[in-house]
Amino acid sequence: MPLALAERSNLIAPSATLMMAAEAKRLKAEGIAVLDFALGEPDFPTPDNIQEAARRAMQSGQTHYTPPAGIPELRQALADLYTKRHGLPTQAAQTVISNGAKHSIHNALMAVCGPGDEVIIPAPYWVSYSDLVKLTGATPIIIETPESSGFKLTPEQFSAAVTPRSKLLMINSPSNPTGVVYSRGELEALADAVLKTQVGVLSDEIYEQLTYNGEQPTCFATLRPALAERTITISGVSKTYAMTGWRIGWAIAPLAVAKFMGDLQSQETSNPCSVSQWAALEAINGPQDSVVAMKEQFTKRRAYVLERIAALPNVTCIPPGGAFYAFMNVSAHFGRTLGGKVVTNSTEFCLTALASAHVALVMGAAFGAEGYARLSFATDMRTLEKGFDALERFLG
Ligand SMILES: Cc1ncc(COP(=O)(O)O)c(C=O)c1O
Fold first, then answer.
1. How far apart are CA 239 and CA 377, in angstroms?
2. Each residue of 159-204: pLDDT tens digit?
3. Domain boundaries, the chain
4. Could you tell me which CATH class the domain 59-285 is placed in?
5. What pLDDT is stored for residue 136 in this prediction?
6. How many Å lie between the centroid of ligand 1 and the Cα of residue 103?
7. Cα–ligand 1 centroid distance for 203 (angstroms)
């Protein structure tokens, strides 16, 4: 008898973003020049000062286990950052460093959710949210936010979704996949609706520093004094500092939640990589000019992408206020024959675009939003130019 998998194995599917990236890689290995817009990963190298800090850490022997929730220096730097920059009074004991923000979200959900609980997730949502909720035994409650309402959850939608079992609301602004940034007023209205209930909030703010056209990110926990004790803020260095491979993310959480997350890590992974933690410390405390330079590039690419999308036949897109994604409405093409196949949904659209135009996008279905395809512009200009030329031919 083959070894049977636990029931839990039915709960999750492989991340669709990584799956599309793997498919693109497979074609590349066959010698095909794939124009890859699937992964949400800055194409810039990690800035030199950060790499140098990692080298210094290794050379000075910072290559051993660290405390499970992170080195005190980084936890204190985060406490200072949130207290001073975001205006959220934070103690070092409320911070937990993990192996990437994805791990932070997983451990935060493990800390507060379990069987019988419901977690409200506005769709479109980042691919991993619903599967990570399911892993805890809780049930994701997906609330569709249509393009006509700017892909934003309204307080009315939230209130209507609340039941006695509701444990948590997950929000993500700037958003992956839509790039939508909630205004402060919109978040305040949501916060007031939340405070009328017992529901907590997990606010994923990983794209907080990547906003355009004067859009301002908001640290949700600061909006009302009562929110701090029921909000878990998630962020990390992956996107802002082009550090996806270093795997450092964090949670700022109420003390008891942070304590449990640290205890969980002590049993689960011991600690996030020691060298990466020293690199992250430099990222946060060191010069920020590389962030400004990368943002300038993203700003140019965003403008170019919007111009090219406007010229694509029957494709529309809400201009992203943040992050580095264009969430294109491609539903007008469903029912057409593209690349020799009739395309009826976003998955078929993206698979056909990859097979026939060699353009890798991610299907809206993976984000709980049929009818769309996500294009990441964390890619160099030349690839974007070629990609849009190929898409134009594909759709033309
Ligand atoms: C919304 C969102 N949250 C969290 C993450 C995870 O980031 P990390 O690479 O730090 O695990 C991502 C990465 O794509 C993301 O888009």
1. 12
2. 999 999 999 999 999 999 999 999 999 999 999 999 999 999 999 9
3. 7-45+290-395, 59-285
4. alpha beta
5. 97
6. 9
7. 12
The ligand 1 atom nearest the CA atom of 323: 16
Residue 60 CB partners (closer than 8 Å, separation 6+)? none
What is the per-residue pLDDT across 246-300, written as a single tens digit (0 to 9) for each? 999 999 999 999 999 999 999 999 999 999 999 999 999 999 999 999 999 999 9
Q: Which atom of ligand 1 is nearest to the CA of 17?
A: 14
Taken as a whole, the chain contains a residue count of 396
Residue type, 350: C
Whether the pTM exceeds 0.90: the reply is yes
The neighbour count for residue 202, using CB atoms within 10 Å, is 27
Q: How many angstroms does the Cα of residue 131 sit away from the middle of ligand 1?
A: 14
Topology of the domain comprising 7-45+290-395: Aspartate Aminotransferase, domain 1 (3.90.1150)
Residue 146's contacts (CB-CB under 8 Å, 6 or more residues apart) are none
Among 39, 175, 238, 362, the mutation site with the greatest number of ligand 1 atoms within 8 A of its Cβ is 238
Ligand 1 binding residues, C-beta < 6 A: 40, 100-102, 126, 172, 176, 204, 206, 236, 238, 244, 249
- Other beta carbons less than 10 A from residue 393's beta carbon: 11
For ligand 1, pick from 176, 209, 250 the residue to mutate: most ligand atoms within 8 Å of CB. 176
What local confidence, expressed as pLDDT, does residue 286 receive?
Answer: 98
Sign of CA dihedral 149, 153, 159, 164: positive
**Per-residue pLDDT at 15:** 73
| Residue 68 near residue 259, CB atoms below 8 Å | no
Per-residue confidence (pLDDT) for residue 272, from 0 to 100: 98
